[in-house]
## 1
Amino acid sequence: MVNGWQHLSGSVDSVFFFIMAICIALLAGVTGVMLYFVVRYSRKRNPHPVDVADNLALEIFWTVVPTLLVLVIFWGGWKGFQYMRTVPPDAMLVKVTGRMWSWSFEYENGKRSTVLNVPLQRPVKLAITSADVLHSLFIPAYRIKEDAVPGLETYLWFLPDEIGTYDLFCTEYCGAGHSAMITKVAVLSPKAFEQWYKTEEESDGSKPHLSEGAELLQEKGCIACHSLDGSAKVGPTFKGLFGRKETVVAAGKDRTITVDEEYILRSIKDPAADITKGFPPIMPAIPMSDDEMREIVEHLKTLK
Ligand SMILES: [Cu+2]
């Protein structure tokens, strides 16, 4: 707990287990009564059916008790919901964009990443949007989930209260690559986070600096479907792409081509034009500027 803010899992889990307990009690109760009735009121024991008059006490009981239970569930849910919608004023802002099929994160200093890095014990506000279709951001460990809607900004917050890495999923079916739309939340010590947050812009050469094109491949989500190491994914590998001879299908006809700049550009701008043989025609047209496209093509040329 920091400044009175705490992890949400407590309030979400208590409502969940309360509902679970009610379900188990009802299942046991209904099954028990049913078995008892099957025996006690069988045709053998009761050859002549009789009318049963209504039972006011019983009816009041089974109206009032479920109403109270539902109100208790509502109260727990409402308190958790209010908590979830109230972002601490000192929260760190991270902009999140979901796209087919990857997540990208942008920090207040302009830094971008594909993993959500956050410092320990500092509330984080996620401002969420989508570049294409509906997605939904889900961090199970923090019990938070919110839709990513194109043209709209939604938000969430959470308090990273334990160092470690946690799954971050898309939890709204968004097309063939939906299951690839997965990344991590990395909760770092404040020092490690500060180090990560400040570097890269002035890379000192101790780490290989990613070229613009390589970063774009991550940012635009290309590597969710294309590998860099020759392995098969949803789409053909980028390794050795430039100059590769391959068969493409257009309008039902096979054609052998050699991959050149023009072909790569067309593949990105109009993915439905030439379909690489043996692959499904599911590559989305990913919006980007001409400059970005040029950077990507230049980078793809270097992947031998
Ligand atoms: Cu998605």
Note: The two ends are 51 Å apart (CA to CA).
## 2
Amino acid sequence: MTDPLSFLPMMFSAQPDPALLIDSHCHLDAAEFDGMRDAVVAAAHAAGVGQIVVPAVHVDNFAATLAMRERYGCWLAFGLHPIYLDRHLDEHLTVLDDWLTQHRPVAVGEIGLDFYVPGLDPVRQEWLFVEQLKLARRHELPVLLHVRRSQDRLLKYLRQYPVVGGIAHAFNGSPEQAQAFIRLGFKLGFGGAMTFRGSQRIRRLAATLPDDALVLETDAPDIRPEWAQDVPNQPANVARFAEVLAELRGSTPAAIARLSSANVCTTLKQTS
Ligand SMILES: [Zn+2]
């Protein structure tokens, strides 16, 4: 139970301190956080997180996403996620267009292609994705991408309908695909997956990509890290992910926080 009069939540700054961490991808509005959201945000603050990017996934959660800006000062993205393909109607693109105009998020997202989950019609996925790329172009916004078994297809469309840049979240492609995204102005998101010693390819990429290509993310409440498989992932974990990435790159968590946050700000045009 949350009584807004009895408790004022901590707010993130619209222009966060460059030394603070940014969670570049967190579904803070997700039901998993109901009843504990203020505590989750307080824990993130305490862990050194200065901003959280919250992407919407379908029109039904646009309002809940907006509430994350009103209550906590989060940066937002609005988009139609491929996983919810069955729930997206053609007219939701018009709704999205209106929300982009009225509420001016930092990006269009979460959008993309998922060729892993069975039963998601690829033709309709690609149509919906392209229509959202057109919206991103019209609104001059970057995009937050969901990329699963679809790297080359996504790259094809990004070349056909170039956007101002964005973040390929939870990146899990080859080094060549990584370079192709980077050439198109994208940053690559790293989080829970790189905490597993078995994730050789992701860890190698995280260790070797150039400094200006990497951003930290949690994808909370999903993509739980190796050390916390039984509880929802949460934005405070981005601090531990900075430690993991620092270890992989022979750097320090403070340096990783700075470069990741600078990359997020550059990409999402929130230059402080
Ligand atoms: Zn996501």
Note: The mean pLDDT is 94.
